[in-house]
Design goal:
Membrane topology: Multi-pass membrane protein
Number of domains: 1
InterPro entries: AA-Vitamin_Transporters (IPR050638), EamA_dom (IPR000620), EmrE-like (IPR037185)
Number of helices: 12
Strand content: under 5%
Family: Belongs to the EamA transporter family.
Keywords: Membrane, Transmembrane, Transmembrane helix
Helix content: over 70%
Protein name: EamA family transporter
Length: 263
């Protein structure tokens, strides 16, 4: 029961991250927002490490940390922040849920292995879901959303942080609401959320913890509706269902669920 509650809490936090990104992306600009987000997250984790008396061993593993930070935090955060200047919260959350699909494609190419029929079926479902979302949403927001949509998809497949703060300055006066959003984004939705995620991996295993991906779009849509008054169209609902179903097939979660039912 505790693990299920933790799973929903994590999904709510990660779904909420798109809300805070949407609020702060335009006033701060993508680069400043992400630098601040990562800084708050790092400080939070450093404080936790201090109280838990855990050593980071940063210098001895600096190459690994730099590569991991480059591809697991910076680029996706930056690209999603760029996309959030135009796209709504629900669209960002749904596009983010395609990450396992892109992971399967990249993994197959990298390891030169054939995809199973189930994975291929999941990829097709996921791509159809994204096509439904992108196609209908583009009609509503205009041609200006095409590049941010692509950037968000790229952010779901590869993840990077770039030192662009000097080149993309703050655009507006920073209000208390914006700073609270950035703090919540960094400290809570990133720092504490990652602690919760790795706790779930330890307790449930990586494959079960990955099921949080299926819940994030629902919370993204909910937060956007409640706090920003975003409308929930049929494209968001259909796109979410197809993307989540595709992700379940790609990760093998659907077959595990069926086998448990038979038992």
């Amino acid at each position: 029961m505790i693990n299920i509650l933790s799973l929903f809490t994590l999904a709510a936090l990660w779904g909420g991250s798109f809300l805070f990104v949407r609020i702060a992306a335009n006033p701060l600009g993508p680069a400043v927002l992400i630098e601040t987000r990562v800084a708050f997250a790092a400080l939070t984790l450093l404080v936790v490490s201090f109280f838990l008396k855990k050593s980071l061993y940063f210098m001895s593993n600096i190459k690994h940390f730099l590569i991991l930070g480059l591809f697991n935090s910076a680029l996706p955060f930056l690209l999603f922040a760029y996309s959030a200047q135009i796209l709504n919260v629900s669209t960002l959350a749904i596009l983010n849920s395609t990450a396992p699909i892109w992971g399967a494609i990249i993994g197959a190419v990298w390891t030169r292995t054939w995809l199973t029929k189930e994975v291929v079926f999941g990829l097709v479902l996921g791509m159809i879901g994204v096509s439904v979302l992108v196609g209908w949403e583009a009609i509503n927001v205009g041609d200006e959303a095409i590049i941010p949509m692509i950037a968000a998809l790229m952010g779901a497949s590869v993840i990077l942080v770039l030192p662009l703060v000097p080149f993309i300055p703050v655009r507006e006066t920073i209000s208390s609401d914006i700073m609270l959003s950035v703090f919540a984004l960094g400290a809570v939705c990133t720092g504490l959320a990652y602690l919760l995620y790795f706790r779930l991996i330890k307790d449930l295993g990586a494959s079960s913890a990955l099921s949080v991906t299926f819940l994030i779009p629902a919370f993204g849509i909910l937060w956007g509706y409640l706090f920003l008054g975003e409308t929930v169209g049929m494209n968001a609902i259909i796109g979410t269902i197809l993307v989540v179903a595709g992700t379940m097939f790609v990760t093998g979660f659907s077959s595990k669920f069926i086998s448990k039912k038979r038992i």
